[in-house]
Input
Amino acid sequence: MPIIINLDVMLAKRKMSVTEIAGKVGITMANISILKNGKAKAIRFSTLEAICKELDCQPGDILEYREE
Amino acid sequence: MERNKLLFWAMACCRIMQVVQVGLIMLLTYYVVHWQIDPQYYDDWKFSGSLGKLSISNPIHTAASEMDDTRTFMVSQLQPFSVYIIYVQMLAQLVLWVLVVQEFVKVIQAVKQVQTFREQNVKAFQKIAGYLLWIFLISCFTFVAAGNTGHFSFDFSFSTLVLMLASYILAEIFKEGNRLYEEEQLTV
Output
């Protein structure tokens, strides 16, 4: 998929752990793992909103389009 | 609750059908074995060729007195290899029907466990369609050799073909359902 998830980059920038973001956003570790590994087929606006709020960033900081 | 009741009865029907099918296999085998031991016992027995609605028949030897419309033969007149062909044909059909019911039971069990749109059910319906195709192919011809008369006919069972088509359509529906389920599972 040409959509890249840069969640780990943003987490490193904010010095936040995966467990911490999962707890704050309210999603399971399994789902965070799916998102981080690029296996996710879709992301809900509510999830994206919560991640952006916690990491204080824009959706474009997390999602990136890269041509294959 | 209603759904569970329906599934319960469907499962019960499948189990009864399996018992009947296995019983028929045993009965058929018993008759063939007994016919070999004591062929005189079957002297008065008659064999009727199964006929579908559409039939193309090709008599190998024309013997007008023996070839009637009902295609009934005396068992005593049947050639042994003809009996074996009929036996294998009927046995194969029964075994395939047992397998069809077995796959259907697996689907019902999956639905009962709320595992409806799963890959295993798609495969089960594809298998059912495959078995039905084989049943159609096996049952579409009849060969009977009695005395000096041979009879070969094609009888097309369209109901089996319709069932096969329905199974393939259900397999496609379940495949689509499975795709949506997996997509839902991977939505964060």
User: Anything to note?
Assistant: The beta strands of chain A are 3-5, 63-65. Chain A has one domain: 3-65.
